């Protein structure tokens, strides 16, 4: 069976993890082989890189941060995503190349054309079949994430980007929406809706994707 590569993008606390879990349960129940993965941290090397990247106490330059994300991606593609797609799995990936353009490009102000080029190298030219952008007010996402972190006693390692000023998060949101205007693989969903409504909308979108897009 052909693999399907779906990425999930959006602000902190937009509900990506929640949505991915619901989709995985649904498609597994209907007999598809599903892999849940994420960036940063989807491979063995990536897990180590994740603790370095997200550690808010470790000050790193924007360029160093970028190359850590790209190293994470290159390993993730080779070690996890490509093999899963070759096995015909549905790969549900929490963040991918568009996060680099949104956070390092729109957020940190790095050159976006350069980021696209570097993304192409790190991803080995692999482009998602579908990219779901969960859109919501940054204030709402940040307060959801903060509440979740408190409930789950998450450590400061989770905090580098959540600690950024609101203006940073507004730029990120604008970045995702501008990228999505190109249409194509992008599907923007109002993430202010309840989690069930978001799930139903995305599930329908995936089920209605043309068979040709499901072939790899
Ligand atoms: N980054 C990443 C870059 O800068 N460049 C890159 O190239 C890449 C790949 C990763 C950080 O790295 C940056 C971006 C990020 O800042 P992370 O720890 O992986 O950080 O965290 P995020 O991807 O930001 O995801 P979060 O875990 O913060 O949020 P989610 O997964 O979007 O949200 P989720 O599902 O955990 O939900 C948050 C809370 O809200 C509730 C949930 O129950 C949970 O408590 N919730 C809802 N509540 C109301 N209505 C809904 N519809 C809800 N959906 C979920």
Characterise this structure.
The longest helix is centred in the middle third of the chain and has 25 residues, at 62-86. With 216 residues, the protein is α/β, with parallel strands linked by helices. It has helices spanning 16-29, 44-54, 62-86, 97-107, 112-122, 138-151, 166-180, 195-207, 211-214; strands spanning 4-10, 34-38, 90-94, 130-135, 186-190. Strands 2-3-1-4-5 form a five-stranded parallel β-sheet, with helices on both faces. It is globular, with a radius of gyration of 16 Å. 38% of the residues are buried. The chain is built from nine helices and five strands. Helix 4 (97-107) crosses helix 7. The site of P1-(5'-adenosyl)P5-(5'-thymidyl)pentaphosphate has 26 residues, from helix 1, helix 4, helix 6 and helix 8.
Quaternary organisation of the protein chains: single chain
* Major sheet summary line: 5 strands, parallel
Q: Report helical residue fraction.
A: 40-55%
Strand order of the largest sheet: 2-3-1-4-5
How much strand content do the residues show? 5-15%
Can you tag this structure with a few keywords?
216 residues, alpha/beta, 55% helix, 13% strand, binds P1-(5'-adenosyl)P5-(5'-thymidyl)pentaphosphate
Record the SSE blueprint.
Layout: E1 4-10, H1 16-29, E2 34-38, H2 44-54, H3 62-86, E3 90-94, H4 97-107, H5 112-122, E4 130-135, H6 138-151, H7 166-180, E5 186-190, H8 195-207, H9 211-214
Parallel strand pairs: 1-3, 1-4, 2-3, 4-5
Bound molecules: P1-(5'-adenosyl)P5-(5'-thymidyl)pentaphosphate.
Write a short abstract of this structure.
This protein has helices at residues 16-29, 44-54, 62-86, 97-107, 112-122, 138-151, 166-180, 195-207, 211-214, and strands at residues 4-10, 34-38, 90-94, 130-135, 186-190. It has 216 residues and is an alpha/beta fold.
């Amino acid at each position: 069976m052909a693999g399907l590569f779906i990425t999930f993008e959006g602000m902190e606390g937009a509900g990506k993890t929640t949505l991915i879990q619901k989709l995985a349960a649904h498609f597994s129940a209907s007999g598809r082989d599903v892999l849940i993965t994420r960036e940063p941290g989807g491979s063995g090397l990536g897990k180590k890189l994740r603790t370095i990247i997200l550690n808010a106490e470790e000050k790193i330059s924007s360029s160093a941060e970028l190359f850590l994300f790209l190293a994470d991606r290159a390993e993730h593609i080779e070690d996890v995503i490509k093999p899963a797609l070759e096995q015909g799995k549905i790969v549900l990936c929490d963040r991918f190349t568009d996060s680099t353009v949104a956070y390092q490009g729109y957020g940190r102000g790095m050159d976006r054309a350069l980021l696209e080029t570097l993304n192409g190298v790190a991803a080995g030219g692999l482009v998602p079949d579908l990219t779901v952008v969960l859109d919501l007010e940054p204030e709402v996402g940040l307060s959801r994430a903060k509440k979740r972190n408190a409930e789950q006693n998450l450590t400061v390692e989770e905090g580098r980007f959540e600690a950024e000023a609101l203006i940073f998060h507004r730029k990120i949101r604008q970045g995702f929406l501008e990228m999505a205007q190109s249409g194509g693989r992008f599907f923007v969903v109002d993430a202010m809706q309840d989690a069930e409504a978001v799930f139903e909308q995305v599930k329908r979108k995936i089920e209605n994707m043309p068979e040709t897009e499901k072939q790899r």
